[in-house]
Amino acid sequence: MFKKLKDKLKGDDHSSAGGPMGNYSQQAQFHPSNPYYAPQQPQEHTISSEQKYQPPPGPPPGHGPSNSGYEPPSGPPSHFPQQPPPSWDPPPYHDWTVIPDTSQLPPPPSIGYESSPTANATGEEGARALAWTQANPLWPPQNLTSATHAAIQSAQLALLKAPTYIGDLMPQQQAGHWKCRTHAKCTDSAILTNLPMYSVRWDSPLNTHRPKTIYFELKVLGIGRGGFSRSGVDSGIAIGFVAPPYPTFRLPGHERGSLAVHSDDGRRYVNNCRGGNDCTTPFQPGETVGIGMTFAPPKNPPSYDQSQGGTILDIDVFFTRNGKRVQGWDGNEELDVESEGGAMGIRGECDLFPAIGVFGGVDFEVFFHPAQWLYHPF
């Protein structure tokens, strides 16, 4: 009796080690804390080996004849819309002749030149000027006194001789009237005024909420004295504006914070040390030319993000000849890659000074007072 009981216990131990419950215990140990995995306990079947499976009588459901008389309706259910057959027709033709509205887009960059046919400066001078501007950042707007601002409004501006300038600067009897004469050996030089014509603190439309125009004229008396030339043109004049500080051994328009129109090739230069852009024809003796800028509150005020680097003021730059406006351009236009720093310094964020550039032997007069101008921008 004890032997039979012992054999029975041995049989139970064997089934618990290798039977279905034993396998379940091993499986559960691999995922003891996984609530998404709970294998089911297998069920024991008591069907003996002598019993055989007997299929149910009759055919499988859905395969035999039906006595219900049910017939499925033809076509889709009524609550589903009838779909048209697929079409292989091409999509409708897009009318490419319709021109989209581009009035809100910035003007495209004008076609520039790699070099000027009359350029007289060397590449070494350009590299020196670039290093100079990198070492001398633009000045912030200055706090001018009311007396100084009144002197500017009455055209009491004086011309300052650049270190490279060889010639004479002669003030005339009327305020704002100067006569200038250079030597044939004068190299590139920028003549600036002692005071700005545009003061951010006093004139910016962001402060005054009204437009501000700056302008002056220059009369060409003579160009050339038979001096030396590096490119066939021995002398020239440039008229424009600069933001200080500026390398006065370069013509205005060639370096950062400047714009100008040049007499030798008739091109306009905006922070451009290469070939500039088409603007007018070369200046001739006896002609009077003028340069102006109008800053105005933006017609389409920018968003916060745009104001960090986009349009801040509406800027109209214009060039006159013998009392008539002949050219103009948007001061916010997109500039080409030759313009170092884009329009930095000349978008109304810095004080601006009138600037006259010269090289070689030239004679000219400068007029800062409105009573002396042929063109009246106001």
Automatic annotation (TrEMBL):
GO cellular component labels: membrane
Record's compositionally biased regions (Pro residues): 54-63, 73-93
Ranges of compositional bias, category Polar residues: 23-32, 40-52
Superkingdom of the organism of origin: Eukaryota
Subcellular localization(s) per the UniProt record: Membrane
Entry keyword annotation includes Membrane: yes
InterPro entries membership: B30.2/SPRY_sf, SPRY_Ssh4-like, Ubq-SigPath_Reg
Region of interest (Disordered), residue spans: 1-124
Presence of the UniProt keyword Transmembrane in the record: yes
Keyword terms, alphabetized: Membrane, Transmembrane, Transmembrane helix
Location, primary (coarse class): membrane
Protein name per the record: Uncharacterized protein
Organism in which the protein naturally occurs: Trematosphaeria pertusa
Highest classification ranks of the organism: Eukaryota, Fungi, Dikarya, Ascomycota, Pezizomycotina
